[in-house]
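ok so for the tutorial part 2 we go from a plain amino acid sequence to predicted structure tokens. step 1 is just haveing the sequence, like this:
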Amino acid sequence: MTDTHIIAIAFDVLQVSAKLAAPALVTALVVGFAVSMFQAATQIQEFTLAFVPKVIGVAAALIASGSWMLNTIITFTQDLFRQIPSLLG
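step 2 — the prediction. this is what the tokens look like for a chain of 89 residues:
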């Protein structure tokens, strides 16, 4: 196992984790921006008005993309397990 293999695996891990985090983070960003615009327009500064829609949006994004996320992590793990013999020697 060389440094190149370790760096390639680390890069793949970061890439897969970014892909898996993207649906929830983008949804939270969009919903948070929309709620902030609504709060600025109406001058309502209520904490639950900002929190509850984000939770609902992120939960919906996780439900919608859950099977894709599961397939992605299973495929990545299987690829890592297939690489073990070549990495050892």
